[in-house]
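Re: weekly structure request thread

Next one in the queue (123 aa):
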Amino acid sequence: MNKRILIIDDEQDIREATQLCLEILGEWEVLSASSGKEGLVTAAAEQPDAILLDVMMPEMDGLTTFERLQDNPLTQNIPVILLTAKTQPAERRRFTQLHVAGVITKPYDPFTLADEITQALTS
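Done, posted below.
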């Protein structure tokens, strides 16, 4: 049985490209959500093995979405990997303090993304 991952990102192109990379190169079953609100519902209903979460989204940003995932007993144990273009040292420290499974910087290399996710989930 394939591992299941939920991509929460407001940009359709990123969701589609990431889904293709993970299905082909990582053999993941990919679920997707276009907003934090939709992602919270999908995560609770589908119980994926991991979540890829965009940090910068309108309405509910990724950090608020992460906090809500952590507050819900149904989703608090799902590992979350942040996808972000924010790479300043202060931001990186903040992400580390959140106890996320990992942080992947955009733009990412589609050919190494599946390996980066695996590494984040096993370290």
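The chain has five helices and five strands. Residues 1 and 29 are 9 Å apart (CA to CA).
Next request, please.
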